[in-house]
């Protein structure tokens, strides 16, 4: 357990397509006191002659978003390696088919070396079931376990033995 004082990408789970254009909101139970940076106001500087004609100062407001601390329980992950069947990500339309941490970070205005965390919080609010978090067991279990390799081996060897047996039987029938 450690504390990070920089922006991170957090995958909280699956949400319906209708949520695509919703702004990011933090639920009330996760929100902690935030520190809001001050608003910067600059007055325009003009020559003495024009000062008479333009008495109103030109205000340029530079307001940064509020900084909010949030506690996340999750697993630190890296980018995924897509197979040849996975389409390419389209950052311009915000369509992500696989996790590419540097590309997602840049699209969000964050540095490429941003930390990526998959949320494993199992406390789903029944009144608001989204986002649907990933099952903790799938995060712990590797996608291809040794038992799977053994199953694949037995399947393919038995299939090849069956095909060999059928081919030999067929060839012997033709000789008679």
UniProtKB/TrEMBL annotation:
Cellular component, GO, one term: mitochondrial inner membrane
Matching Pfam families: SURF1
Keyword Signal annotated: no
Keywords: Membrane, Mitochondrion, Mitochondrion inner membrane, Transmembrane, Transmembrane helix
Cellular localisation: Membrane; Mitochondrion inner membrane
Region (Disordered): 22-41
Membrane topology: Multi-pass membrane protein
InterPro entries, per the entry: Surf1/Shy1 (IPR002994), Surf1/Surf4 (IPR045214)
Subcellular location, principal: membrane
Domain of life (superkingdom): Eukaryota
Function per UniProt: Probably involved in the biogenesis of the COX complex.
Family: Belongs to the SURF1 family.
Name of the featured protein: SURF1-like protein
